[in-house]
């Protein structure tokens, strides 16, 4: 999660998607000059990072690390934002599992998305951006949430007829946003940064 430290610093954490003990393959330096590297996914805004790690640390995929600011890092020595295409094949294949875990761990945030989603235009609603949610499901969600806000993914699927696996739907949308940078609307990826800049 991104959190604000006691001194007001915005700390960004990420989950390691791939750990390359011998550095990045496209790093032209000799082997002895390379530091361990890898890829990570931001826990709050789902930004992708290419990171270099401290040589003395041994990490596993799924470890959580601090990527920003530099003053708060302990294991990461460098971090740069990257696009989905820049990820190693290992990081790409790990991505959907890590996204699913992050959605599950922060269930209330995503249940609140179902509770709070608003129209974007007269014809398009934020809920319609989720894969598989058409007019009928959207209206079912809107009708149910007027009665009482949803409190869990389980309650969502129980109360809205035809809505199965609302957590997987959110995870699928996050993956879509990561893979396709040309999507007109970003619902989850990079939202934290957009909110900070407003």
Automatic annotation (TrEMBL):
<dbReference type="InterPro" id="IPR007003">
    <property type="entry name" value="DUF655"/>
</dbReference>
<dbReference type="InterPro" id="IPR012340">
    <property type="entry name" value="NA-bd_OB-fold"/>
</dbReference>
<dbReference type="Pfam" id="PF04919">
    <property type="entry name" value="DUF655"/>
</dbReference>
<protein>
    <recommendedName>
        <fullName>Adenosine deaminase</fullName>
    </recommendedName>
</protein>
């Amino acid at each position: 999660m991104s959190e604000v430290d006691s001194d007001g610093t915005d700390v960004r954490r990420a989950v390691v998607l791939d750990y390359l003990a011998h550095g990045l393959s496209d790093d032209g330096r000799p082997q002895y000059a390379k530091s361990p590297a890898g890829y990570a996914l931001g826990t709050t805004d789902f930004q992708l990072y290419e990171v270099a790690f401290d040589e003395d640390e041994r990490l596993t995929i799924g470890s959580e690390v601090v990527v920003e600011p530099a003053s708060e890092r302990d294991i990461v020595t460098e971090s740069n934002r990257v696009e989905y295409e820049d990820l190693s094949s290992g990081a790409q294949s790990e991505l959907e599992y890590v996204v699913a875990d992050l959605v599950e761990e922060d269930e209330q945030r995503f249940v609140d998305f179902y509770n709070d989603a608003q129209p974007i235009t007269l014809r398009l609603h934020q809920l319609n951006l989720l894969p598989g949610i058409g007019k009928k499901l959207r209206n079912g969600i809107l009708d149910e949430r007027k009665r009482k806000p949803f409190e869990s993914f389980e309650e969502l699927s129980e109360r809205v007829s035809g809505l199965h696996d609302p957590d997987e739907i959110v995870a699928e949308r996050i993956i879509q946003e990561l893979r396709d940078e040309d999507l007109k609307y970003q619902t989850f990826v990079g939202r934290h940064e957009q909110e900070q800049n407003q």
